[in-house]
Amino acid sequence: MHHHQNLGEAAAALSGMIPPPYEAMAMYEQPKPRFIFKMPRVVPDQRSKFDSDELFRRLSRESEVRYTGYRERAAEERRMRFVNDCRKGYAEMSFVASGTNLQLYFNANHNPYAQEQECDFERERGKVHLRSNFIMNGVCVRFRGWVDLDRLDGVASLEFDEPRAQQEDAQLQEQILSYNQRMAESKRIYHTPQTPPEDHSHRRGGPGMPGGPMGW
């Protein structure tokens, strides 16, 4: 009996220390907006990186490439699958010297009005010439080369894709400008100087006591 009474008294005492709900709400701070900055697709100076980066310098020179798809299949099946993949618009290739693996995508539709086909089986007998544009390590590049349809290897290189790089640079600048404008607006709204709270210390002490008002 006394045990339950003591628990009741303790609960009553603790309840006096817990602020009512409306007081707790007074401490709630309105959440600030979260601005998600989309990761840029390209680096700020693509040309400089392409010219100075060791990997790009190696890949910009013509070197051996190989088809890497379906390695566990027989040679004849791999040849057939490579041709089928190319006609569908993709191919798995690797630069042999550096071990750089690429998943290439290109337009496999033959367009007689196009200046250069992205997948051309007609240009040279027994070979397919491939061209694929993509972004690698933040730089717009173009894969250009050919693959022997019997051996499934060939020669290719990476080129700097200047037109695509200019488009991506323009989008990057717009993205940065938009982000900076939203951040500035957020600071203007949520960092407006607030009126300092009224000093209530005089309620705790009289004239002449620390915290009290001046005596005049």
TrEMBL record:
Using the UniProt record, give the first listed, main subcellular location: nucleus
Which subcellular locations apply to this protein?
Nucleus
Which region ranges are annotated with the description Disordered? 191-216
Q: What does the UniProt keyword field contain? A: Nucleus
A single GO BP: regulation of hemocyte proliferation
Record field: compositional bias (Gly residues): 206-216
Query: What GO CC terms are in its UniProt record?
Result: core-binding factor complex
What Pfam families does the record point to? CBF_beta
As one GO molecular function, the record gives: transcription coactivator activity
Assigned protein family = Belongs to the CBF-beta family.
- What does the protein in this record do? Regulates the DNA-binding properties of Runt.
Name the UniProt record assigns to this protein: Protein brother
Record gene name: Bro
